Amino acid sequence: MKQRKELSYLQLKKSYNPEDFSFCSTEELDVLDGIIGQNRAEKAMEFGLLVKNSKYNIFVTGLKGTGKKSYIQKIVNEKAKKENIPDDWCYVYNFYNPNHPIAIHVSAGIGRIFSEDMDELVKNLLEEVPKAFSDEGYELEKAEIVKKYKESRDILLDELSKYCLENGFTIKNTTKGFALTPTQDGEAMSDDVYEKLDEEERERIERKAQDVEMKAVEFLKKIKQIESTTKEKISQLDKSIAINTIKPYIDYLVNKYKKYEEIMSYLEDIQEDMIENIYVFDRSESEQEEKEENFLKRYRVNLFIDNSENEGAPVVVEYNPTYNNLIGKIEYENEQGSLRTDFTMIRPGAIHKANGGYLILQASEVLMNVKSWDSLKRIIRTGKIKIESLRSQLGVVDIASLQPQTIPISMKVILVGNPYLYNILYAYDEDFEKLFKIKVDFDSVMDATMSRAEKMARFCKFFCTKENLRHLDPSGVTKILEYSHKIAGSQKKFTTRFNKIVELLIEADAWAKLDKSSLITKNHVKKAYKEKIYRNNKIEDKLEEMYHTGKILCNLKGKEIGKIYGLSVLDLGDSICGKPAAITVTTFCGNKGIINIEREVKMSGSIHDKGVMILEGYLSEKFAQEYPLNLTAKICFEQSYNGIDGDSASSTELYGILSSLSKIPISQGIAVTGSVNQKGEIQPVGGVSEKIEGFFSLCKHFGLTGEQGVIIPCQNIDDLVLFDEVIEAVKEGKFHIYPIANIQEGIEILTEKSFDEIYKRCRERLNKFRSNIENKSKKARRTKR
């Protein structure tokens, strides 16, 4: 039998020497500029920002804590500062259709000035119009018009009065108009005298009165015409005063904003409306405030988007992308029990604010909010945004509202989400691939080089400075690097999940404070990591307690036939622990092949079922080339009640079958992990460090004998990042780790027998099974005859 291959303690983790670093404290280092170990993501992001096309939006994906958000905001802000500042947008009153406010865009900073100018215009007119209408010249001219009107009216009234007297009547004004009264001897006739007249005289007076009335109507028409002419003259005078008062201000604005056609058109409309409603400005102080809140509001400007303070293109990060927060909204006021709104109550959303720049959103948040995702896609496709209420979007009867003019949109949308969400959208949303063509994929690990180790030290300096933590000495940095390998699960990789490093730094700083140390050392980092594990591994301790108390049967001494310990990983979210599992195998004469008891009771996953079926392929190739495989084998994970999946125990199960079939016992102090293919080659598995540490903890409790250890795939050697306690035990020869490439190597370690001997015994027993079946078959045929 070949000599066992065993790993040296030096191969069990990646170690660093504090003397390899030239600094005494990370405080001496330069601050880290940029992100570490994300070359692919950086290139994709740079290209995505370079392409100016509405369909080339960006989806940033990767595991939580890889620095996606901070990197995105940093690089986008840097690029945005070099770009042009987009236009301001304003909403103004539509004098022809008040329910459809008009959108006006002007250069950045002009919107604020324009809004202030319009407020100043109204303020000036409220001061100047009353002055103009109280001017002495205006009063004299108006009085002259009124005087001429009165003179003309008095002349006509005198003529009418004379005509009436000449025809025997007097005329007087009443609340219902004018009334004619017959006269007698030049005096108005009383009712008593009139009643004493004979009927013929009264009829004559009435006929005469009709003629006089017709003539009086003609006089009154002339008076009305003069009155109308007078009013028109006064109106023309007022209009002239209004034009002379308003036009200089409007002309100033026209000259100031002559390059903006939309403002020119708006100023024309506003001048006409102000002249027409000039009396609104000629009010007492007590009435001005009320008018300012009502009628005069139409002359204000709703500065919808103000980019005056931007240094470049806007970068908007919306953490709560509800429909209204994205699309904007129209607010309402409760006025005596009824809702009221106007164009000044139109409010922008994140998309309006990001217009001409960049909008950063969390994909999961967008998808969780009703209509946000659909609306975002529609805006990207059409390049326009229209403010509508959510009720109308859902088809619910909506209250009467404004319909603001649509605004053209040009922006780069950057969604941030996990890989699962990206794959779901890509597979089930046909618009997603068309609108988000750039994938920025953040890796959770990076190649471990000395250059990157130095950058990790600079990252520690950056975070400690930012959060006002103690800095690290070289030993503290080396421990951070070691745990970075631990998190990455590889000696050749650092983790890029910097949130894990950040947590370690914060907690190590707390232990350094308790220790009254000015620097964070390796002991503080080690303490922080150990205490964090202790806080989160209650379930692991409970499991170990069950092993210790015998509730889970476990015997790590001696040898047994058909019994072996496999290694599995229990992922609890905030902690991962290795869990040994006893696997038993029984083999006997039959034709049912391998029976997976877990599968029979539906407690086995599809990957585990596949692993068991692979075992049949291996056995068939080794032992059934000439004759059928007359074998029935039953495999069981003892005391397993929660279901099993994965193929990392397939080699372990095969060892159990070979042991049971050959009747050669297996060492109970050696646990196994690794999958196997039909050719007997061992394949790598995940969580190898946790599996070893879990089994080592159990061995330590029952007592290290120097014969205990684990068998792992040789491909997993670089994935070993073990605790110092395990490494020390390996160094002292109390625990062993055997890397293997095939089944032959593994079974020889477990049985201390050569594979040829094991193969021979298996063949002999299978031949005996076949012979027994053939004899039974012959006997059955003879009995039948």
Description:
With 785 residues, this protein is an alpha/beta fold. It folds into four domains: 19-35 and 444-536, Helicase, Ruva Protein, domain 3 (Orthogonal Bundle); 81-86 and 310-441, Rossmann fold, CATH 3.40.50; 126-293, Up-down Bundle (Four Helix Bundle (Hemerythrin (Met), subunit A)); 554-774, Ribosomal Protein S5, domain 2 (2-Layer Sandwich), CATH 3.30.230.10. The chain contains 27 helices and 30 strands. A seven-stranded mixed beta sheet has the order 23-24-22-21-26-29-30. A five-stranded parallel beta sheet has the order 8-13-16-1-17. The protein has a three-stranded antiparallel beta sheet with strand order 3-2-7, covered by helices on one side. Helix 17 packs antiparallel against helix 18 (498-514). The model has no long low-confidence stretch (mean pLDDT 86).
